[in-house]
Design brief:
This protein is an alpha+beta fold. It is built from 2 helices and 4 strands; from the N terminus they run βαββαβ.
């Protein structure tokens, strides 16, 4: 099978949440689950709250559900949402 490009939006519980710690934890979870090249962007939401947008490569042979559940259980994470998943070429 091929490689999928995945984009996940991660919402912290509050504006005071440590985004750097969340990034490190998410990157570790993604890489230990088989993902590669995890990168992040911050997206302003409202009242100082910023969402993290995680981008990474994922094997199409693997289910994403286990990773989604693990990410939702990260401390200071309110919710996660798979925003985009498409086959990567190249």
């Amino acid at each position: 099978m091929g490689i999928a490009a995945v984009k996940i939006k991660i919402l912290p519980t509050s504006p005071e949440a440590d985004l750097e710690r969340i990034k490190e934890t998410v990157k570790d979870l993604v890489e230990s689950s088989g993902g590669k090249n995890c990168k992040f962007e911050e997206e302003p939401i409202a009242f100082g709250l910023k969402a993290l947008i995680a981008f990474f490569a994922w094997s199409e042979d693997q289910e994403l559900e286990n990773l989604e559940n693990a990410l939702a259980d990260v401390e200071d994470v309110s919710s996660i949402q798979v925003v985009d998943m498409r086959r990567a070429f190249g």
